[in-house]
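Changelog note: in this version the structure field was regenerated for every chain. One regenerated record is shown below for reference.
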Amino acid sequence: MKVFIDTGAFLAIADKSDTFHEMAANVFQELAEQKAILYTSNYIIDETITLIRARVNHSAAVAFIKGLEASNIKVLHVTEKDEHSAKEIFIKYKDKDFSFTDCTSFTLIDKHSIDATLTLDEHFSHYGYKHGVKHLLVK
């Protein structure tokens, strides 16, 4: 199974005081045991490092960076073409409050035929996927 990890899940795992810490950590562990292929994006990494620094502390952000570098998580890089597709999604869904980073994630999930997301962001369930993406953690 191919799983895309979003900022909220990373933050919940990094922040032991987060309401969803235990649940997110358990799902992440289960995915590792199932040998799921894990993905995220350079936009998600940017967002995650910034949020961990703001909500936890600098040391936790550094630990996230080092942990990510040592992990088997594949980092997908948003290309110019991906940005164009994300802009189209952003413009089309004017009735939703998707962030631009959400839209880049949707683009990458579709482009790479990813099966599931590990996320706390309900926007992922509001977006109409072309191939029925499962959401493993949406609150």
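Spot check on this record: The chain has one domain: 2-135. The radius of gyration is 14 Å.
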